[in-house]
Amino acid sequence: MREEFFPIFDYGSVFVDPWLSGFESTFQVVLMGFFVCLACGVIGNFVVARRLALVGDAISHSLLPGIAIAFVFTSSRSLPAMLIGATVAGVLTTVLIELIHRKSRVKPDAAIGIVFTTLFAVGVVIISIWLDNVHLDADCVLYGEIGLVPLRESFILGGANLGPLPIATMGAVALLDIVLVIVFYRVLLVTSFDAGLARSLGMPVNTTHYGLMIALALTIVAAFEAVGVVLVVAMLIFPAVTVGFFFERLPVLLLGVAPLSLAYSLGGFHLAKWLDCSIAGAMVVTAGALFVLAWVFGPKGGLFWQWSQSSSCQGGAKSITELGS
C-alpha cells in the first residue's frame, strides 16, 4: 500500500540522472523555478508587510478574462497578446479593489473577494460563449506546467540564443523587480510600515501603492504560463513568512529570498522526479515543508521558542512563589 502512494526512492534516478542525461532541460526548468520564486519573493515581502497577500490571489484569478478578451480581439495565443491582456486585467483588479474599498464601507477582504470572483466569472463566461471551439485551457492558466518550458520557442537577441522565451521574460521581470526595490527601497519601506509617517514626510503613498500593485501584476503575468497563477500566490507569501521566523529586519528578509528560491526550485524539481507529479506543485510542497521547519525551530516566534519562553515564565513565577513562602 505504501508503494502505491510513494514510489521506491532511488537516489540515482532522482538526483543524478536528470542532470546527466538531460542537463539542459533540467537546468532550464530549475532556472525558471528560481526566477519565479525570486521575483515573487522580492515583491512578496512588501505585499505581506502591507497585509495584502490575498491581492495576489485576486490578480491570479482575474487574469482569465484579460487573456480571453485578448484572444477575442487578436485571434492569437501569442505570448505578447496574452501578456498584454493579462496585465491590463491585473492592473484593473488592483484599481477596482482600491476603488471599492475607499469609496464604500466594504472591508478590504470583502472587496478582494468581490473583484476576483466577478472577473474570474466574466472570463469563464467569455470562454464558454465566444471561445467554445478554441483550445484556451483555463486549467493550464491556473496550474501551468513548468516542465514544458524547455520546449518553448527560443529568445534570440543579436543572433545569440538566450534560451526559451518564458525564461528570458521571467529573468527580465525578476531583474526589474530587484532594481525597482533597490531604487525605491526607502519609500517602499516607510509606506509599507507607517503610511502616516510617509505622508508627513511628503512621500507619494498612493502612487507607491499602485506602483507596487502594477509590479505585482506584471510578476504574476510573467509567471502564469509556466507555473500557473494559483501556485504563484504561494511564492509571494512563503519566502517572507519563512525568513521572518529567523530575522526581523527587512533587508535581511529580502536577502533571504534568493537562497530560499534556489531551495524551492531544486527541492521541488527532485521531489517531482521522485513522485512523478507536477513540478510546480512539488515546489510549493517544498516551500510548505521549509515553512513548517521554520515555524517549529525559528528563534523569532517559533513553536520551540514559545515553549521555552512559557517554561521560563512559569519557572520564574514558581521561584517568586517559593521566595514568598
Structure summarized in a few sentences:
The protein has 325 residues and is an all-alpha fold. The protein contains 16 helices and 2 strands.
Structure description:
The chain is globular. The protein starts with a helix and ends with a helix. A two-stranded antiparallel sheet has the order 1-2. It has helices spanning 2-5, 11-21, 23-49, 53-74, 79-102, 108-130, 138-143, 165-183, 185-193, 195-200, 205-227, 229-243, 250-255, 257-275, 279-297, 303-324, and strands spanning 154-157, 160-164. The longest helix is centred in the N-terminal third of the chain and has 27 residues, at 23-49. It has a domain at 23-233: ABC transporter involved in vitamin B12 uptake, BtuC (Orthogonal Bundle). 37% of the residues are buried. It has 16 helices and two strands. By secondary structure, the chain is mainly α. Helices cover 78% and strands 3% of the residues. Strand 1 and strand 2 form a beta hairpin. Residues 319-325 have low confidence and may be disordered.
